[in-house]
Amino acid sequence: MRCTASKRGFSQYFKHEDLNRIRSFDLDFILRFAFGIIRGEILRMPRYGVWSFHHDDLGKYRGGPPAFWEMYYGDRVTGAVLQRLTDRLDGGVVLRRGYVRTIKESYIQNRDQAFLSSAGWPAAVCRDIHRGNTAKLEAAPSSTSAPVYHDPRNWQTLRSLAQIGLARAKGKFDWYFRAEQWNVGIADVPISAFLAADRPLSVRWFPKLTRNLFRADPFGISDGPLTTVLVEEFDYRKGKGTIAAIRCGGSDQVEVLSPALDLPFHLSYPYLVQWDGQVYCIPETCQVREIGLYRAVHFPAKWEKVATLVEGVDAVDPTVFRHEGRWWLLCADGSVGARPLHAWYADHLAGPWRPHACNPLKGDVRSTRPGGTPFVHNGRLIRPTQDCSGGYGTAISLNHIRRLTPTEFEEEPIAVVTPMAKGPYPDGVHTLSAMGEKTLIDGKRMVFIPAVFWRNVAATVKAFWSRLVT
Predict the structure, then answer these.
(1) In contact, 464 and 184? CB cutoff 8 Å
(2) How many structural domains does the chain have?
(3) pLDDT above 80 (res 307)
């Protein structure tokens, strides 16, 4: 139906005949995509109100255009909010909130990812309503004192275009000449020591690698003086990851068993679980859209698959742990650009695994993607996560899980682990895993890798020739 709203000052009000017709539909909610600042009876007519998107960080930017000013001012993240509107200006009830990494090379791409990352939120709120979780809809309205922005002026548009051009040039340069090389190390402190963000910690890094190779995602088992660490080993010349095992004793000498686990598809994040006298590995296998459970027949060199825990999901960095009598599995969904967090739970490690009622649980590029082993400190369950707001491996966020049940999830960040600027790997960190009284960590440095350079040159020539002949 076509409605006409009358304007009073900055607000718009619906006419009585339109309100009466809308009332006759007995709606649960209205999702607003048009009009301006709407007020009055229309906001209270649907059972659960009128919902509206705001595609910016509401605490910093009001107005519009959506997802523009984050790029302009160089913010690492672009926010989005789904809120229930009230008569208060910019004082809605927040139903869902999320953040994606700001794409500096294209305004259209940055805007569209903000749109797409939040598109499923109304359906998620509907699922909450079906389960009887309606408290959030009646929460107190939010408040913000952020400035109100409007369409950019000509000089601001020109400046934005210059910023985009510089970002694209830097991206191309990095694509050809700067590649990631990761390595792993051991800190002789328990993982809880990393909660003290201001405390400098010493890391013993494993020997440096050849430029075509990197190792990351360490998970290990300590047996007296002998330590065995499983890592992702990636060879740039092959373009495929396998799982390698690194054994080290009291000296600086290490023994590398490569590969310890090799399958026809890419492997990474070899998450280890010790349970009932057995050692299990749950590697990332998102390329085949499943989460598999592998048991060590002879640790660490021989494994057998014993179960498929979850099928049909691009599970990134699957992390398994026990909490309050249940097994929990958390991972990021790699099929969605924002990589939201999903969870499953089970009574037994091999399953069956049931999805969390509130999937996806959250979508914040600063603290969603798993980044190591959850641990308990002073009665609090802490989850290491990856902060990718400034690029892959920006930092590790340590989050306190306040509530985790089959129908509830709530966590908050309480500490950040940043790359060790004065060490040999100052450009990134993304995994923190417990190993008794020691902690495993990885680090990144950006270097020129010939194999990457020539591969990208070949891809550029191929794309150019394809456009030329068509």
Answers:
(1) no
(2) 2
(3) yes
Q: What is the CATH number of the domain that holds 416?
A: 2.115.10.20
pLDDT in tens, 358-397: 899 999 999 999 999 999 999 999 999 999 999 999 999 9
Whether 344 maps to a domain, the answer reads: yes
Q: What is the CATH number of the domain that holds 49?
A: 3.40.50.170
The one-letter code for the residue type at 403 is R
Q: How confident is the model at residue 199 (pLDDT cuts 50, 70, 90)?
A: low
Asked if pLDDT for residue 116 goes beyond 90, the answer is yes
Q: Are residues 116 and 28 in the same domain?
A: yes
Q: Please indicate, yes or no, if residue 186 is contained in any of the structural domains.
A: yes
276 — phi, psi (to 5°)?
55, 40
Q: Round to whole Å and give the CA distance between 330 and 371.
A: 11
How far apart (Å, rounded) are the C-alpha atoms in residues 147 and 144? 9
Q: Is residue 349 domain-shared with residue 384, that is, in the same domain?
A: yes
* pLDDT above 80: residue 57: yes
Q: Which domain holds residue 143?
A: 5-168
Report the mean per-residue pLDDT for the chain.
93
3-class DSSP state for residue 372? Answer: strand
Give the span between the Cα atoms of 451 and 434, in whole angstroms. 34
DSSP conformational letter for 208: P
pTM of the complete model: 0.91
Indicate the length of the chain as a whole number.
470
In a domain, 76, yes or no: yes
Arithmetic mean of pLDDT, 299-311: 95
Q: Are residues 77 and 192 in the same domain?
A: no
- Residue 130's CB is within 10 A of a number of other CB atoms, namely 10
Are 54 and 127 within one domain? yes
Closest CA to 313 of 293, 294, 295, 287: 287
Of 306, 352, 312, 346, nearest in space to 330 by CA: 346
Is residue 408 one of the residues assigned to a domain?
Answer: yes
